[in-house]
Structures are given as structure tokens and as C-alpha cells.
Amino acid sequence: MTLKKLKLRHYLNYMVIGTVTAVLAGMVLTGYKFDNSLLFLLEKIAISIILAVSLSLVVGFLGELSLGHAGFMCVGAYLGGKIAALLVPTLGNGPLTFLIALLAGGGAAAVCGIIIGIPALRLRGDYLAIVTLAFGEIVKSLFQNSSDETFGGSLGLNTPRYDKNYLFIFAFVLVLLTLMVVQNLMRSKHGRAITAIRDNEIAARATGTNVTKYKLLAFTLSAAFAGIAGVLYSYSNYTVQSMKFGYNYSIEILVMVVLGGMGSINGSIIAAALITFLNTKLATILTGDLAVLQNLFYALILIAIVIYNNAPALKGFRDKYNLSAFADKIRKSRNDPGHVKDDKAKWDVVPTKIEMNEILSVDLTPQDSSVTWEKGGPK
Amino acid sequence: MSEYILETKDLGISFGGLKAAQNVDIKIRKRQIYGLIGPNGAGKTTIFNLLTCVYKPTTGTFYLDGQEMKGLTPDKINQRGIARTFQNIRLFNNMTVVRNVMVGLQHRPEYKCSVFESIFRLPRHFKVEKAMREKAKELLRIFDLEQERNALACNLPYGKQRKLEIARALATDPKLLLLDEPAAGMNPHETEDLARTIRKIRDEFDMTILLIEHDMSFVSGLCDEVTVLNFGTILAQGDTKTALADPEVIKAYIGG
Lengths: 379, 256
Description:
The complex is a heterodimer.
Chain A: H1 2-10, H2 12-29, H3 36-62, H4 69-91, H5 95-120, H6 125-144, E1 157-158, H7 164-186, H8 189-199, H9 201-206, H10 211-237, E2 239-240, H11 247-259, H12 265-285, H13 293-310, H14 315-320, H15 323-334, H16 356-362
Antiparallel strand pairs in A: 1-2
Helix pairs in contact in A: 2-7, 3-7, 3-10, 3-11, 3-12, 4-5, 4-6, 4-10, 5-10, 7-10, 8-10, 11-12
Chain B: E1 4-15, E2 18-24, E3 27-29, E4 33-37, H1 44-51, E5 59-64, E6 67-68, H2 74-80, E7 82-84, H3 97-105, H4 115-119, H5 123-142, H6 158-171, E8 176-180, H7 188-205, E9 208-212, H8 216-222, E10 225-230, E11 233-239, H9 240-245, H10 247-254
């Protein structure tokens, strides 16, 4: 019984996203016309979710700070967009071209992921963040300075137009694919190895975990999905401009992951959807001179959420009104004795650290009680 | 197959001018409980780090079951059969107890399952996961941790964290188990319990155990043989009672 429940909970996010997609797709296929701006928003949300979920693989689960996610996306957008533009005259602007573009963009980004993953094996924390940041900027300026014939240079690359009415369906199918890969990976022995590396790399090595392999795996997969998001972006926007993939965009994706809670896939999804929605709404509300305020609002919202999550003064409020407390209440009211939450409340940390002197003084030399043992060696 | 499960030959390492260990020759037979003792800073943990390939020896080499092991990586050496625990406990704190053990289990060849099989949820994934969970529970039962299997590792009391670390090391199916101060920070009751557990491990798994310990009654009660280190060199070696009674050893410990 509990097993069934567990499974249901595991697949809830697929089901929610799947149902929403199916309903919207059904409406489109039966001839309902959505507003173009809504379709565009849906595509943007899908792209954000793919980016956030893939970044959470590296930041949330592997525990390495990557600030170059927009760079991987940039590679995917340019290469996928270019290949699609080249293929359209021969293959037509259909799903097949799209699929090839996705594979090419994702593949190219994955290769970059390997290239970045190799130094990542030697660098930690801030240093890795700097390398990934540099990678993002290098990729951006490479494409910016390309010639007009190859990648359009500073004018941007024109990509094929795909029927707007259907693109969001493909986008959400890709969201589901990303979710499946990342979630299934994390809920397997390989995912356990990745979280083990995050928790304690030395211990992970000592228990036989091939750290090189798993770090590269996480970086490559994460980059590949960022590339796929890039291809989607190029399809959604008709034109790819390198300016878009700057440092700020990488931070924005990182914010989604951090806001959603590190290591929580569902949190990342919700945060990605929310932030994208807010961004778009603010961009339409604040026009003209007020456009400057957009970043301010965005920052204020972030600050408010971070304070809400961390301020000690709000702890009581948080404990009272949050989702998991609500879920607990429901469980309790159902009076389910079989459900034992694997939580912290059950075990207190018992500090039984007895001083070394105590142990040592009772043995070896019981006859000579005047001998005392000091930390730091014999006197 | 060789007579000794572990044999070190002239093992030594220097950090710059400091000779942390030199001319260390240790021979351990199968099913022995072997003690490595010495004052603080004598180089005991350094020897462990050499044996688990965290450090590369500057001189000498060592053999596990007759095979030379020098120059491997820590994860490879673990897969070849040397598992260890740490002086300062290193658990996967944000994972549950049972998952900690499963991380130890999952590199065994019988639980092989590729990334592809896991992502696409092929039958082997479910089979392997189930088998690992069962095996992990079995191991936890030996260490009396089965009740706590769903607790987070960081929330266990200290003594149980030590036990869990041993269980995780044992899960990797080693030929030789290295325990770095397993009784540190334990009260006398827990220490006694630990000695019983270590004997049980030897008997049930046919395990050879090399341990570092400061608690002398623990060592003399448990170890068949010991090596006493001081300033990176071997001071005395052999039968526990004789080695501990050696005047040089007593001098090194108590000073004089």
C-alpha cells in the first residue's frame, strides 16, 4: 500500500505537466486559437523549466556551482538554429528538422559540457564558478564576432519559423523528457553516487565511487539539456542574439534553482515557471520610462522570498503555514499509523564525545594513576 | 593466493623533508585482527592513507593477497578489496542510513546496472535496486541499525554513526577492513559493544581487520598482533602482549 502511494508521489509532477500539456494541446488541435503572447509565454516557461531542472543536476545534486549554463544554451541555440536553417530547404520545416536540430544542439552542448567537466574535476567551489563563468562569456563573444555568413555576427542568426500553435506542445514534451531523464537518474544508484559525492567526496571515493565518471556524467547531461533548451529558444524567437546569453541569464537560471530549493526538482520547476511568468508580466506592465523598474521589482521579489525562507523571526510563521505542515496535518487526520516520516524529529544528535584523556587514563597503566595523557603526543 | 592478505615492503612517504613514515613492513594473515598503535603523530593514519592510495608512497610498495596495489586510485583500491573508515566520521549526512550502505554496495559487480538502464527504467534497474535494499537491510541488522534505517545519517547518535561507517565499508565487500580509531569518543559500554561487533565481523565475513586505536585495553583485548609506530618508524611488532610490554613502547607512550 505504501509502495503504491510512494510511486504516485514520485510521478505527480509528470502527471501535472502531462495533463496541462494534453489539455492545451487538445484545445489547439480542436481548432481553438490561443493568444500569441500566451503561447510565447508557455514556450518561455518550458525553456526555463528545462534549464532549471538541468542546472539543478549540477548545482543541487552534484553540489558544484556553475555560472555558465547560458553558455551551453547559447551553443545549442546557435548550432541547432543554424542546422535547422540549413535543413529547411531540403527537409522542409517539419518535426524531422526540429528533431535533428535538437540532437545537434544538445550534442554540441554536451561536448562543451565534457570540455568544462574535465577542469571541474580539479577545481572546487569559487574556482569552478569562475571557469564556467568565463566559458559562458567566451562562447557569447565567439558567436558575437562570427562572420555574417556563418552565425550572423552581432546582428544575430535567423532561424526558421515554426508554426507557433504547435511549438509549445513540443516544448512541453521536451520538459517531460528532461524530467524523466533527470528524475530517473537521481532516483537510481547513479543518482545516489552523485549525491554521495556532494555530501562527502573523500568518503565517496573510499567507498568505490568513480568520482571522475559521475562528475562528467552530471556536467554532460546538464549541458546537453541546456543545449536542447537553446534549440527551443531559437525556434521560439526566430532569431538568436548572443547578447541574450550573458552572465545575467546564467544567474537568473541559478536563482530559479536556489529559489526552488537546492536538490528539489519540483521546487526548480515551480520557481522557473514563476520567475518567467513574473518577468514577462513586468515587461508588459512597465513600459517606457518605467521599464527601468523591472529589474527593481524582480530584485525585491527575490529578496522577499529569501528573507521569508531564512529569517529566524519568521520561523514560527513558516512552520505554521507551509505545504509540508499542511500535508502532515492531512496525514494525521487520516490517522495513518503505518506512515512514519523519515525525519529529523525522531533522532536527536547525542554528543557523546568523551575526552580522550578519560578513556586513556583508565587503561594500560592502571597501577600508575598519576600518568595523564595529553592531546598532542607524549610529553 | 599468498600467505599474507596484506604485505607492505619498505613502505614510506616523506612530505618535503618530513619523513612521515619510513621502512614500514607489516604482514597480516587472513582473519587476523591487527592493531596499529603509537602516540599521536606517529604516522598511523598516514599508513592508512598510503594503503588506500590517498597518498602515493615515496618508497616501497604493498601487496594485497599477493597482488601489487601501488599506484591505484582510492576508488579502484576499494573495488580491489581494501575498505576503510575515517578518524573523523565521514558519512553521507544528508542521505538516509540505508542509502549510505547502498552507496557502499553499488560498486559490487553483482549490482551492475548501466546509466542507460536506470534512466529508461529497464527491468534490471528494479531488480538491482531491490536486491541492494535487501542486502543493505541485512547488513544493518548485523550492526543493530535496522530500526534507524530511514533516519538521516547525521541524526544518528555518535556511536551509531561509527557503526554505520563500518557497515558502509563492509558493504563494499572488502578483503581487508581498515578501521581508523573506531572506539574514539565512545563510552566504555559502547566500546565493549564495538569489540563484540568487530569479532563478529571477522567470524561472519572471514574478514581481516587492521585497526588504529588509542584505547589500550581495547587493543590488548581484541588484537592478535600489533605494530607500534613512533615518528614514522616501527618501534615494536608482533604479539600484542609482548609488544605492549616492550620498554621502548612504554617509553614512547609515557615519555621518559
